[in-house]
Amino acid sequence: MISPTKLETPLDEKTIRKLKIGGRVLLSGIVYTARDQAHSRLVDELEKAKRENRQPDLPFSLKGQVIYYVGPAPSRPGMIIGPAGPTTSCRMDPYTPILLERGLKATIGKGRRGKDVIEAMKKYKAVYFVAVGGAAVLISKKIRRAEIVAYEDLGPEAIYRLDVEEFPLFVANDIYGNDLFDEAISKYRKVT
Asked: What structural domains and CATH numbers belong to the chain?
């Protein structure tokens, strides 16, 4: 079995050009969390700034960043964060292309992405990683630090800055438009 690729955030195009669907990744560095409501606020600010011809006031720079679709559960005493399993990614599809256009290089979640997002990943050279669903407690052990950086009123859906170490992921969509889900279905149909 091929060893996983070790990556450090922030990501750049040179690094993600080497990633192919099905590849295993161990991601370390800073990752931001965001779900539906936080995405809506980020995109609203980007659109408002564009209308007003000004720089957007975002809680973090999107350039080279990774967003993890998660709403962590409350932490127990002595824990950095509670269970932090991935959220279904397609719920963020309406917002993802504009974030990719602004420099976001990767997203993490579970499930398939829509065609518009896959095309945006090709155009803006970004990737989509999947984390294993059902492993929320194990995933949370790869988080070294967690702090809320924006939208605290959203509770667990606030934007957190996570410092992760060797966070285990798979490449589901690469910058070439390849889709791990389509490939797996195709292989399955050939076998049956």
From this structure: 5-191 (3.20.130.10)
